[in-house]
Amino acid sequence: MEKLYEILEEIQPEVDFTTCRNLVDGHYLDSLSILSLVAELEDTFDIVIPTVEIIPANFNSAEDIWAMIIRLQEEA
């Protein structure tokens, strides 16, 4: 999870990802940020994030993103 925080902080350094629960809904992450994040997550965690997984529910908090990463790793 620490690596995830590092990636998120590179993309949006002014956001406290440990407490923020509305990254998408609160407009902290926009579509370009999410695309960058998806590419970084795929490279770092050796996963493929299908288009159907790129929804606000999977990206609203670091915990949501981490849960998606774990699920995709288990499905691989």
Features of the shown structure:
76 residues, mainly alpha, globular
Q: Quote the average pLDDT.
A: 97
Helix content: 55-70%
- Low-confidence regions: none
**Would you list the SSEs in sequence order as H and E?**
HHHH
Walk me through the structure.
It is a single chain. With 76 residues, the protein is mainly alpha-helical. It has helices at residues 2-11, 31-45, 56-59, 62-75. α1 (2-11) runs antiparallel to α2 (31-45). The radius of gyration is 11 Å and the shape is globular. It starts with a helix and ends with a helix.
In a nutshell, what does this entry contain?
The chain is mainly α and 76 residues long. The chain has helices at 2-11, 31-45, 56-59, 62-75. Helix 1 (2-11) runs antiparallel to helix 2 (31-45).
What's the arrangement of secondary structure elements?
Elements: H1 2-11, H2 31-45, H3 56-59, H4 62-75
Helix pairs in contact: 1-2
